[in-house]
Amino acid sequence: MTDSDKKPMSRLLKLANKFNCFYLSGFHAGECRAFVVDGQQVGLVRPDVMKELLNYPQVFQVHPEYVQLNPAFRDYAERSARVEEVLREWRAGGKFITLRGWREECYEVRAQFNTPPLFKMDRSATCLFGIRKYGVDINGYVMDPVKGLSIWLQKRSPNKQTWPGYWDNMVSGGLSVGYGINETAIKEAGEEASIPNNLIAKLKSAGCVSLFFESERGLFPNTEFVYDLELPPDFVPSNNDGEVETFELLPVNECLERILSSHFKTTSVPVALDFLIRHGYITAENEPNFIEIVELLHIPLQTIYNHPQKKCKIAANGEAIESLDRI
């Protein structure tokens, strides 16, 4: 196929490629190594992080094809404490810009979302190890009698550690240690947008989206649990926790342009696109790359980390000819 035969890439597909930049390129480049804990892959480690891990052989064992947390650490508490010691040393030494956003707020590290946690890690450090992160997003919208469907967006505070001053979905937040999905949604709705209980009762679960993004901070294999919340026309969200500068209610067309702009938080785009698809505003009729975009909203993060116990060399006929122990 020549370049002239290729289907042109729409603005939306370019954006979908952007928030999946690691999945579409870096993941297949082979430069990162599996991060293994208790015999299970829980993340990926980039070369810049591996270089630093070599200084801590009693904690991290760097092998040719994977990095392993010392298997002598047998339980959740010991693993968490030993990893935190290294991370705090890095933070004190000014290594890795992501650690400037240290929050004293931890995420659980698991082999799968529904399996017991192996240890916990400060949320600012999870991207250094490609840890799968989970969060909630609430699409707040209004059925305006004149403008039609309109969507509330927030502008993040200029003091936020990440994406300061960028536009974002109305409410979002990560799943921290000790909090469930619905619990987090309700908590964040109150803190970020002052949504009262009588309105929160109308919250509707709408599935999830997933992406695999990379920035200078690290790797972001993120899954967001999505909620829709229809709000009355006279309700105006207000912030309680200092993390939001302002809110704005936009009709669909204006909202889409805002999402496509360079001022919208890249890793929040999938939630907004998913909402517009589910509500029939982005369709196969008006978006030439519709199927590719839908696929890129659901990266298979639950199965993507399948570091094998053994690696086989494959002959030309497809049969395994040699098995090499990896762990």
Structure description:
The protein has 327 residues and is of the alpha+beta class. The chain has a domain at 133-302: Nucleoside Triphosphate Pyrophosphohydrolase, CATH 3.90.79. The chain contains 10 helices and 15 strands. Strands 7, 8, 9, 10, 11, 12 and 13 form a 7-stranded mixed beta sheet that branches. A hairpin with a 5-residue loop joins strand 14 (310-314) and strand 15 (320-325). The two termini are 42 Å apart. Residues 309-327 have low confidence and may be disordered. One of its GO terms (molecular function) is 8-oxo-dGDP phosphatase activity. InterPro entries: DUF4743, NUDIX_hydrolase-like_dom_sf, NUDIX_hydrolase_dom.
- CATH superfamily grouping of the domain at 133-302: Nucleoside Triphosphate Pyrophosphohydrolase
The percent of residues in helical segments reads 25-40%
Q: Identify the quaternary structure here.
A: single chain
| Largest β sheet strand count, sense and barrel closure | 7 strands, mixed
Strand content: 25-35%
CATH architecture verdict of the domain at 133-302:
Alpha-Beta Complex
- In whole angstroms, the N-to-C terminal distance is 42 Å
CATH topology heading of the domain at 133-302: Nucleoside Triphosphate Pyrophosphohydrolase
Give the CATH class of the domain at 133-302.
Alpha Beta
> Which stretches are poorly predicted, pLDDT < 50 over at least 5 residues?
309-327
Question: What is the average of the pLDDT values?
Answer: 92
The number of helices is: 10
Described by the principal axes of the CA atoms, the overall outline is globular
Kindly provide the radius of gyration, computed on alpha-carbon positions and rounded to a whole number of angstroms. 21 Å
Q: Element order, helices and strands?
A: HHEEHEEHEEEEEEHHEEEHHHHEE
- Structural class assignment: alpha+beta
The total of beta strands comes to 15
